[in-house]
Amino acid sequence: MPEKHLFEYAVIRVVPCVEREEFLNVGVILYCSAQGFLQVRFALNKERLRAFSGTLDFDELHARLHAFERICAGRARGGPIGQLAIAARFRWLTATRSTVVQTSAVHPGLCTDANQTLERLFDQLVK
Fold it and tell me: Is 99:67 a contact under the CB 8 Å cutoff?
């Protein structure tokens, strides 16, 4: 039987009007220490997001979400935060914010393959 590893994940949300606290799930970030895994999957459904707000800047949203990818990848491309240890990068990305792009609370689980788990969560929570 394959060994199960602890993982943590958070849902990435777009909150067009922070004051209203309405959001649309657009991605998932998953961290598994035992597998050295930190990745994000996201997709913007422009039609659904326009229903919340016609004033969203989709280029800005893409830039913010791609920053999640760069930080997950680490190294110089991820900027100063990308230089941190993998656990610190996950904690920084999932810290509470009051901006248009936010994350949910962090949730734990067990997995054998972190990449498959990320894909499953993305399908369940975003698609």
Answer: no
Rounded to two decimals, the pTM is 0.93
Q: Give the three-state DSSP class for 26.
A: strand
DSSP H or E stretch at residue 118: helix 114-125
The rounded distance, in Å, linking the Cα atoms of 33 and 125 is 22
Of the CA atoms within 13 Å of residue 97, those in its CB half-sphere come to: 14
| 31 DSSP 8-state letter | E
- Write out pLDDT tens, residues 109-119: 999 999 999 99
| Radius of gyration (C-alpha) of the chain in whole angstroms | 15
Count of CB atoms situated within 10 Å of the CB of 73: 14
pLDDT digits (tens, 9 = 90+) for 70-92: 999 998 888 999 999 999 999 99
- Please state, in angstroms and rounded to a whole number, the distance separating the CA atoms of residues 46 and 70: 23
67 membership: H or E segment, kind and range: helix 58-73
Q: Give the dihedral sign, CA 5/68/73/39.
A: positive
Task: Enter the tokens of residue 77.
Answer: 């491309």
